[in-house]
Amino acid sequence: MKKLFFVIILFTYITLAQSEFRSNREIIQAGKYYNSEIHYFPAGNSFNVFYIYKISNSQLFFEKVSDQFKAGIAVNIEIKDSAGQVIERGFDNQNVTVKDFDLSNSDEHFINGLIKFNLPKGKYSFFPIISDLISKRERRLSPVKIDISDSDSILQPIVINPNLNICSDGTEFYQIINNSSAVPFNQPTISLIIPVTRDGIRKLKYSVFSAESTIIKDKNIDEIIFLNNTISICDKNAILSKSSDKDSIKYFVINNFSAGLPEAPIRIEIATDSLNSNKQKFNIDVIWIHKPKSLIDSVQAIKFLEIIEPREIVSELLTKKDYVNSLNQYWKPKDPTPETNYNELMNEFYSRIDYCEVTFKTISGNSGAKTDRGKIYIRYGAPDSVKRDSNIDDKVMETWFYKQLKRTFIFIDNDGTGKFQLVGNQ
Questions:
Q1: Which of 21, 259, 323, 392 counts the most CB atoms within 10 A of its CB?
Q2: Residue 290: which of 336, 332, 348, 239 has the closest Cα?
Q3: What is the pTM of this model?
Q4: Average pLDDT of every residue of the chain
């Protein structure tokens, strides 16, 4: 059995109204907590409303049953109208079974679920209640407010994986990313699709603004796809499926949307004509999902560069007042994809720092990244194989083998505290 869900979990609170968005950046940035989105589409004189949710395996309470690990989640939604009256309830249960214990702790494997409602236009508050099916613990989330209007011809943008996939039943689909409507900074190839409800709209243009500047101004959106006006779950993914029938609606596509965006809140303005007579504004967070913890504090992140750089260079970086910019400027010449703002090499370096801080931390509490094993791991990555035994003095030894580099590193724990010292390499 394992530990987490609701015991130490902090759930995301999102307000997802049309033209309004708020999020807890730190929680979404961790990339493993509860994420939810609400999207709606016209259906005759009413609207089909879809509440989709996602939670990683690492936040669930797993129970071992025979040779498997099982977990589950129940999501209950109570909807109140603008007068505070309960007008609808819905629920969904999802279960997951894994054979590998490591998968039960994974931040990369998720439960995805969906609850569908049909509502007339109006203002509503959604009250979610999340229950763990194994531990029986329950958590009430803050209400989510939406304003459904039949006058909006441009609906809430949706973040999707641009790759067209095929379900086990043969349905072609696009996967909805669902980071609580946040745009992932570290996935520059994602697409933003914008549903429109009027057939006569043939072109859109958009502008993007940060708090400091105009990032994109009046750029045309020409690419269009036709998808269903229904969100569904297929092969454990929340999806929009391709369609050519009467239930399909038009979506305008912005490819590689986050490539040139800063890691910060933005406002996107979308208009149907050059006069901006029909313009919608959406506030969206651009968030580095799974951002390395060692990058959160810019000063400490600069100090970690001592592992690969002379102390003089690090000291010079620390003399500059804008530590975030100083750090980014250091990594910019090393960026393998300079056409995007996301730097893969920077992410890899600090991801290795995070790993070493946890894995090689000594009993005395010394930084794992600054141990000998940590420094080697950060420079060369994970070894192809590790051999652990004892020497003639009964000291624990580790030998790391790197096949492609044709290098071997030998470490000894001389004092029994886990502080392995490098004693040889070849």
A1: 21
A2: 348
A3: 0.87
A4: 89
Query: What are the tens digits of pLDDT across the range 297-333?
Result: 999 999 999 999 999 999 999 998 899 999 999 999 9
In order of 289, 297, 387, 394, the CA distances from 363 in angstroms are: 31, 24, 22, 19
- In the structure encoding, which two tokens stand for residue 39, read together? 């999207």
Cα gap 143→166, rounded to integer Å: 35
Neighbours of 84 (CB within 10 A): 7
CA pair distance 334, 343, nearest whole angstrom: 8
Contacts of 213 (CB under 8 A, 6+ apart): none
Judge contact between 220 and 293, C-beta under 8 A.
no
Q: C-alpha distances in angstroms, 416 versus 57, 64, 388, 395?
A: 35, 34, 14, 8
Three-state SS sequence of the chain: CCCCCCCCCCCCCCEEECCEEECCHHHHHHCCCCEEEEEEEEECCEEEEEEEEEEEHHHCCCEEECCEEEEEEEEEEEEEECCCCEEEEEEEEEEEEECCHHHHCCCCCEEEEEEEEEECCEEEEEEEEEEECCCCCEEECCCEEEEECCCCCECCCEEECCCCEECCCCCEEEEECCCCCCEECCCCCCEEEEEECCCCCCCEEEEEECCCCEEEEEEEECCEEEEEEEEEEECCEEEEEECCCCCEEEEEEECCCCCCCCCCEEEEEEECCCCCCCEEEEEEEEECCCCCHHHCCHHHHHHHHHHCCCHHHHHHHHCCCCHHHHHHHHHHHHCCCCCCCCCHHHHHHHHHHHHHHHHCCCCCCCCHHHCHHHHHHHHHCCCCEEEEEECCCCCEEEEEEECCCCEEEEEEECCCCCCCEEEEEC
Structure tokens at 64: 């071992």
70, 54, 71, 63: which is closest to 11 by C-alpha?
Answer: 54
Look at the block and give the residue holding tokens 């989510």.
144
Q: Determine the Cα angle at 247 with ends 241 and 252, to 5°.
A: 60
Alpha carbon distance 279, 275 (integer Å): 9
Residues 72 and 111: their CA atoms lie apart, in Å, by 9
Would you give the distance in Å from CA 20 to the centre of its chain?
20
Q: pLDDT tens across 111-140, in order?
A: 999 999 999 999 999 999 999 999 999 999
Q: Which residue has the higher pLDDT, 139 or 18?
A: 139
| Six-digit token string for 6 | 């609701």
